[in-house]
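Example record for the data management plan.
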Amino acid sequence: MAGNEGHQYFDVLTQSLRVGCIAIINTFAKEGEVQCTGLHTFAYNEEDMQEALPQSLELVSYNEFIHSTPKKTQQKYSSFIIKRMS
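Corresponding structural encoding:
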């Protein structure tokens, strides 16, 4: 996410999670779609997410997967398990 929008997202996530709890977030993969329903997408890989997370959140797990759409196309996604540490 661009600039302040990304910081706001992770601020809300931090405030929403209790210490020790996790969130599961899926995004388009770096090699994935650049637009979805006409809107620009934000793609992340493991390194991007590590850099974006504030100190209170830790990346626990990262995985990439392919989603088959109802239109029989394939889309690449990244999946992240993030834990609030403090």
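Summary line stored alongside the record: The chain has one domain: 3-84.
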